[in-house]
């Protein structure tokens, strides 16, 4: 990948499912100042991105956070849990996106089908994602370019229609600076809770570090493309949230399951956005599923090369040179999770998946920020990006603040889901340790074993 494809990859990964679904929920926590949690989430992501940039330019290899934890602490258990947490966050997001894809397809075509058919569509879509990933990174990135263009076009459509409505003097900008907290929460706690939710919309930038070996000259282009991609995504979020609360009253926006449809229906009642947006949403969530499954498979592949996971997961396709074993493993897990979520589509599990993803990744970000400081003693011969000493400390503290239950204001269900996932991770670690305890870690594979571009 060159700088252009890398930029589209980062933007497309961040501008996924979150922006189409979270605006109303964030507004429900803080009122009209829904833009503030997105700004705070952007700043937190930017600080942590600096730590990622130092590590990815210092160690331009696959596996991302798990590799950094392995180098910093050298503990098999810690490395495995980080790997498992990141992998679960990607698979969970992709599984939820697959279910959303199926639901939007049914709504877009006006089909009257039951839950079983929607489940089959979701599984079929995930199978399609698997086939695209097995074709190779080049094919996956090309599909990503198309999907990113579609989802960005949908967001531009929402912004332009809202601005036309605002220019007519019908908007109420007083709502944009009005705080309305839910329940008995203080403003500070409400912003913390909303930021914890909004941060799910900012995750995705960290996926790009797993593509270090598939990028041309990562030391030179990664910092520029990372900052540019985060800036573009942050600008979209702020514009959408400001337009949304200026056009639609907060109460109505928070109650809507499709907040962007509500915004455009209010701004342009005769515009057929209700018929168009389900298809745009399909492309948006499809993009999230594709990128998350691509990253999850590359993560498993990278860690198997490091001897943390069984080497069988590092097997490559004989002609395509893609990690077919890792891709198949992540797909099987996704199939199981999609089926579990679809058994009761009205349960809170679906709504909590995004928050659980954010929770898991923020915990990983704490470790990444600490790893930067620990690995300062490991001097590298290559020139690389430096995050300084202050930013990693701030990043670790803020991410930990957004993880803890008494400071983040997260619902208990997120911790319960994360606890079950990590418990499964501990069980798998024990099995892996038993299988590998007498097998020495194999050396890094030769250059011709790297997956095809």
Automatic annotation (TrEMBL):
<dbReference type="Pfam" id="PF13520">
    <property type="entry name" value="AA_permease_2"/>
</dbReference>
<feature type="transmembrane region" description="Helical">
    <location>
        <begin position="77"/>
        <end position="97"/>
    </location>
</feature>
<dbReference type="InterPro" id="IPR002293">
    <property type="entry name" value="AA/rel_permease1"/>
</dbReference>
<keyword id="KW-1133">Transmembrane helix</keyword>
<feature type="transmembrane region" description="Helical">
    <location>
        <begin position="349"/>
        <end position="375"/>
    </location>
</feature>
<feature type="transmembrane region" description="Helical">
    <location>
        <begin position="279"/>
        <end position="301"/>
    </location>
</feature>
<feature type="transmembrane region" description="Helical">
    <location>
        <begin position="416"/>
        <end position="436"/>
    </location>
</feature>
<feature type="transmembrane region" description="Helical">
    <location>
        <begin position="186"/>
        <end position="205"/>
    </location>
</feature>
<feature type="transmembrane region" description="Helical">
    <location>
        <begin position="5"/>
        <end position="23"/>
    </location>
</feature>
<feature type="transmembrane region" description="Helical">
    <location>
        <begin position="117"/>
        <end position="134"/>
    </location>
</feature>
<protein>
    <submittedName>
        <fullName>Amino acid permease-associated region</fullName>
    </submittedName>
</protein>
<keyword id="KW-1003">Cell membrane</keyword>
<keyword id="KW-0472">Membrane</keyword>
<feature type="transmembrane region" description="Helical">
    <location>
        <begin position="226"/>
        <end position="250"/>
    </location>
</feature>
<dbReference type="GO" id="GO:0022857">
    <property type="term" value="F:transmembrane transporter activity"/>
</dbReference>
<dbReference type="InterPro" id="IPR050367">
    <property type="entry name" value="APC_superfamily"/>
</dbReference>
<feature type="transmembrane region" description="Helical">
    <location>
        <begin position="322"/>
        <end position="343"/>
    </location>
</feature>
<keyword id="KW-0812">Transmembrane</keyword>
<dbReference type="GO" id="GO:0005886">
    <property type="term" value="C:plasma membrane"/>
</dbReference>
<feature type="transmembrane region" description="Helical">
    <location>
        <begin position="146"/>
        <end position="166"/>
    </location>
</feature>
<feature type="transmembrane region" description="Helical">
    <location>
        <begin position="35"/>
        <end position="56"/>
    </location>
</feature>
<feature type="transmembrane region" description="Helical">
    <location>
        <begin position="387"/>
        <end position="404"/>
    </location>
</feature>
């Amino acid at each position: 990948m060159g700088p252009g494809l890398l930029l589209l990859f980062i933007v497309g990964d961040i501008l996924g499912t979150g922006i189409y679904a979270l605006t109303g929920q964030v507004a429900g926590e803080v009122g009209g100042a829904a833009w503030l949690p997105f700004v705070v989430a952007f700043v937190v992501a930017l600080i942590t991105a600096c730590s990622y940039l130092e590590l990815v330019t210092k160690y331009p290899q696959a596996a991302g956070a798990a590799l950094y934890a392995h180098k910093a602490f050298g503990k098999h258990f810690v490395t495995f849990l980080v790997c498992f947490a990141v992998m679960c966050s990607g698979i969970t997001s992709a599984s939820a996106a697959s279910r959303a894809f199926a639901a939007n397809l049914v709504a877009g075509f006006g089909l009257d089908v039951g839950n079983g058919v929607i489940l089959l569509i979701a599984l079929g879509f995930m199978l399609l994602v698997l086939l695209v990933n097995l074709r190779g990174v080049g094919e996956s990135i090309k599909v990503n370019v198309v999907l990113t263009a579609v989802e960005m076009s949908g967001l531009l459509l929402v912004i332009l229609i809202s601005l036309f409505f605002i220019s007519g003097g019908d908007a109420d900008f007083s709502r944009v600076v009005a705080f309305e907290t839910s329940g008995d929460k203080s403003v500070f706690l409400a912003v913390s809770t909303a930021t914890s939710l909004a941060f799910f919309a900012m995750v995705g930038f960290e996926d790009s570090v797993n593509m270090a070996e598939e990028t041309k000259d990562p030391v030179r282009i990664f910092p520029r493309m990372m900052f540019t991609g985060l800036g573009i995504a942050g600008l979209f979020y702020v514009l959408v949230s400001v337009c949304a609360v200026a056009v639609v009253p907060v109460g109505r926006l928070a109650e809507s399951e499709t907040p962007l449809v509500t915004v455009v229906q209010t701004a342009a009642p005769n515009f057929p956005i209700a018929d168009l947006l389900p298809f745009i949403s399909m492309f948006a969530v499809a993009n999230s599923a594709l990128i998350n499954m691509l990253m999850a498979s590359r993560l498993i592949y990278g860690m198997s090369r490091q001897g943390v996971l069984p080497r069988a997961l590092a097997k490559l396709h004989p002609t395509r040179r893609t990690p077919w074993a890792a891709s198949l493993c992540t797909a099987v897990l996704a199939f199981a999770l999609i089926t579990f979520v679809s058994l009761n589509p009205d349960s809170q599990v679906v709504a909590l998946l995004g928050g659980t993803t954010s929770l898991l990744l923020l915990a990983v970000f704490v470790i990444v920020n600490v790893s930067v400081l620990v690995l300062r003693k490991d001097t590298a011969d290559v020139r690389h990006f430096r995050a300084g000493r202050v930013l990693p400390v701030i990043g670790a503290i803020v991410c930990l603040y957004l993880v803890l239950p008494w400071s983040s204001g997260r619902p208990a269900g997120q911790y319960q889901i994360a606890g079950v996932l990590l418990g499964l991770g501990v069980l798998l670690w024990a099995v892996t340790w038993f299988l590998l305890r007498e097998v020495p870690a194999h050396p890094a594979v030769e250059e011709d074993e790297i997956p095809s571009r």
